[in-house]
Specification:
333 residues, 2 domains, Spore Coat Polysaccharide Biosynthesis Protein SpsA, Chain A, 46% helix, 9-stranded mixed sheet
Amino acid sequence: MNKFRKPLNKLSIIIVNFKGWESLKGCLNSLVSIKETTALDPEVIVVDNFSNDGNLKKFKKLYPDFLFIENEGNYGFSNGNNRGARYATGEYLLFLNPDTIVSKDAIQDMLSLAKNNLSYHIISVQQKRPSGKPENPFGVFPTGWTINGLIKTIYLQLSKKYFKKYCGSQRVIFPDWVSGSVLMIKQEIFKKIGGWDEDFWLYYEDVDLCKRIRENGGTVALLCDVSIIHQHGGLTRKNKKNIAFYKTEVLKSKHIYFHKHFTGISQILLQLFLVINTIFLEKLVPAIFGLIFIPFFRVRVHLFIYFYLWKYYFLALGKKTWIIPSKLITRSH
């Protein structure tokens, strides 16, 4: 029997890591403090997506009370979360990014809100940068009105779905979706809807999860009067190819989202509009500047994005599906 397996408890915390050890240390230290100074005793599960750099053994020794699982490869955020959830014994699951710093108030208030409002199937909290500046960890579901930046701005201002950039004076708001960097859900409900969709390698998996919750009658809620710190860092910002790759993943995942949640002529028009907007409106001019000003780091990033996007679109056309494994877009990841 696994020594970490224990009777069903209140909360299991699942963290997916890929070479973000320094940030992860801060996250785990905040959880150690919560376990030592409060009555909360969450089960902590860390899934390492095959960082393969020797640090996993060190962390197992540093945090012997936490369960560490090594994935056989970097199969994405959804896959790592699902694997961690299979080991979880908690009534509630809390999915955390490794670059978050958690407070006991945030966890206690999320659990309390979930317990007292059974229709709130997904719960999150406000997020702040280390400077204290509030973030925007929620939004509306993607549609044709949100593909283009200018159209999206006008739509959000006029739509009844418009949410204030920050929480304001409300204690709880009910956006369409909340960020997967801090997301609590009852394990029973998580299993019922099939967990995270692993067709999303990174990005939009949280939007998709919230969409399925809403379609099944659940409510998505975000607490405004408590927060966690989200540091935003790690591998995605290390070099131009990484930045370009992850920015391409955002656009690829948007295509997959439209593929899964729209049908018929609506899906065809959305996919076509997204391709045109991406290739000819948003990314063409930055890519041209990338050719002209190659020595400059930021403009070179746009050149790589443009290359990856064309590669993705040719692969999607050849394979007749929007769901293309990320490793086929660039062999360096």
